[in-house]
Design goal:
The chain has one domain. The chain is an all-alpha fold. The protein is built from three helices and no strands. The chain is 52% helix and 0% strand.
Length: 56
């Protein structure tokens, strides 16, 4: 497996529709929404990998 293989896998499998996030602490909903958009906003909306789609 090469670095380009890993990058291609990452792009194919990681997407916002498959994220499960738990948050604990002193943060309000609006601030959390903004932070999540900053952290994960660049991910595609849906995974391109068939195995990831069957999980949802």
């Amino acid at each position: 497996m090469t670095p380009p293989d890993l990058l291609a896998f990452h792009k194919a499998i990681f997407a916002r529709d498959g994220l499960h996030i738990a948050v604990v602490g002193d943060i309000d909903a609006n601030t959390l929404r903004e932070r999540l958009d900053q952290l994960f906003g660049d991910l595609p909306g849906r995974s391109k990998h068939p195995a990831a789609q069957s999980i949802n």
